[in-house]
Design a protein that fits this description.
This protein is α/β, with parallel strands linked by helices. The strands form two sheets. It has a six-stranded parallel β-sheet with strand order 2-1-3-4-5-11, with helices on both faces. It has a six-stranded mixed β-sheet with strand order 7-6-8-9-10-12, sandwiched between helices.
């Protein structure tokens, strides 16, 4: 049979279903022989207690929902792995979903999630106060937002990265290596508060760190054509280094520079947000601004478990994790010939 029920075990053992339940919970007054018979029957039949039935008798389901924008993005895969490992360590199961960077799909998953008996949820939101987000808040369900903020939401605690520290560290190292013209690829089409905040941080740091405040910003979306146009614009501006706000953009930039014969780390330095494993196995290895996904995930889980235990929200306090620049071979000294050659090719 596909699923063994409590009644199946009771029928095989020749006792009542109530007796099986009591013995499994180490309750009731039964002889040693009866207890051994029931436990042996449970093992032989492979009976697994129905967690849904248990949750109907208890307010604690030991299950939380996790929602991220895109599990194909290695950064979010690492973030989910960090949170799931930490929850498992505390004996909590997870229901995982992805919004595919779509508010509509985000809200559909939230609606399905609210139909489950869960203790709480950790969400990487799309950055807008959508109907689904409002439903989550109105349920007074223990809830934590991680990685991205939602403007206008004041009651939900956030765990987010501070982009200013890592961007400034990256620019200071580039200046030390002789770079004066630095390009930045933004991604406003995602409508992500956190990613837009990175552009603001870059503009402020560039104005302060670069001698002439010469930071060049090129916007792109998720299409190859848009990313290629952004790279053309940056090369035309004569930049000697490019910083990508969104790691999927960096993968396309790497391919575009390769096709042009522009050697990364020699003629063009490259830095990307997100310390993902793929960047460490490339040649050259790609320098990154790490959001410390593991630390962010653990803090998100710790905060959610505190909310579940206390039964109250913490008033929307923001918990910031500083970003950090990790230098690798994709960042090198600038040469005057490299900028001249790049401008001549455009």
């Amino acid at each position: 049979m596909a699923f063994v029920t409590l009644k199946d075990v009771a029928q095989r053992a020749g006792v009542s279903a109530a007796a099986v339940s009591q013995i499994l919970h180490n309750k009731g007054r039964f002889s040693s022989d009866t207890r051994q018979l029931v436990l042996k029957t449970v093992e032989e039949m492979g009976y697994v207690p129905d967690q849904r039935a248990r949750s109907m008798r208890s307010s604690d389901t030991k299950t939380v929902g996790l929602l991220v924008p895109d599990l194909r993005n290695p950064y979010f895969a690492d973030l989910v792995a960090s949170m799931e490992d930490e929850l498992y360590r505390h004996g909590v199961s997870t229901l995982i979903g992805t919004s595919s960077e779509s508010v509509e799909r985000q809200d559909v998953f939230i609606e399905n999630l609210l139909g489950q008996r869960i203790d709480g949820a950790i969400v990487v939101p799309q950055g807008v106060k959508s109907p689904g987000v409002q439903s989550l808040i109105q349920r007074d369900l223990p809830l934590v937002f991680v990685d991205r903020r939602v403007p206008g939401v004041e009651s939900v605690p956030f765990v987010v990265s501070d982009p200013y520290t890592g961007i400034r560290e990256a620019l200071e190292e580039l200046v030390r290596l002789g770079h004066r013209h630095v390009g930045y690829m933004s991604h406003p089409s995602l409508e992500s508060f956190s990613i837009d905040e990175r552009e603001t941080a870059f503009r402020e740091a560039a104005a302060d760190v670069l001698a002439d405040g010469d930071g060049v910003v090129a916007a792109c979306d998720s299409t190859y054509e848009s990313r290629a146009a952004a790279v053309e614009m940056l090369l035309g501006a004569g930049v000697s280094a490019i910083l990508c706000a969104y790691s999927p953009d960096a993968f396309t930039v790497i391919g575009l520079l390769h096709d042009r014969g522009v050697a990364i780390g020699e003629r063009m330095s490259l830095v990307s947000f997100d310390d993902i494993s793929a960047f460490t196995v490339m040649t050259p290895r790609i320098a990154v601004i790490s959001q410390q996904a593991d630390l962010m995930g653990k803090q998100g889980v710790e905060l959610l478990l505190q909310l579940i235990r206390s039964g109250s929200m913490d008033g929307g306090i923001t918990h910031s994790v500083p970003t950090m620049f990790i230098k690798r071979e994709s960042v090198g000294e600038v040469s005057s010939a490299s900028v001249a050659n790049q401008s001549a090719e455009v």
